[in-house]
Amino acid sequence: MSISAEQVRAEVGRFWGAFAAKSADVIESFYLPEATVFSSLASRAEPGRLAVTRRKREYFHPESHLRVQLGPIEVHPIGDIAAVASYTFEFHASRVSGALGKVVEEDIQNGRATQVYVQQADGRLCILHEHLSLVAKT
User: What is the model's pTM?
Assistant: First the structure.
């Protein structure tokens, strides 16, 4: 059975719902072991598992507050078992654990996301690659 645009859109929503709920185990289950991630502030890709570990430390502690709003999600199939989802998002995080223990705020008004989903033999959709970016301020 081919991967559908509706399935991918549902998984994108489930991903960000789990992120906003700070569900670390659920977020980790989205990434394939070989997944790569470009975060919105990164200068290079990192393994998906490392990105999850960093996000747990920065965002998933009890004092942080997260809010996400997604724009329209475009889905482009790649064969029968993969698809690219691209969309815009707003992301607001308060009490984020920054560098050197500094507490910071994040307010992303014009984020862009691209995620490559691959359907597994059991039907689950997992992320092979993720790229989050910001619109440059002028």
Answer: 0.90
Task: Give the type of residue at 9.
Answer: R
Domain-wise residue ranges, the chain: 5-134
Residue count (the chain): 138
Per residue in 72-111, pLDDT (tens digit) is 999 999 999 999 999 999 999 887 776 656 666 778 889 9
> Strands 31-38, 125-134: parallel, antiparallel or unpaired by DSSP?
parallel
**5-134 classified as CATH 3.40.50.1100:** no
| C-beta of residue 111 within 8 angstroms of C-beta of residue 88 | yes
DSSP secondary structure of 41-88 = T-SS-EEHHHHHHHHHHHH-STT-EEEEEEEEEEEEEETTTEEEEEEE
Instruction: State both tokens at 33.
Output: 């072991």
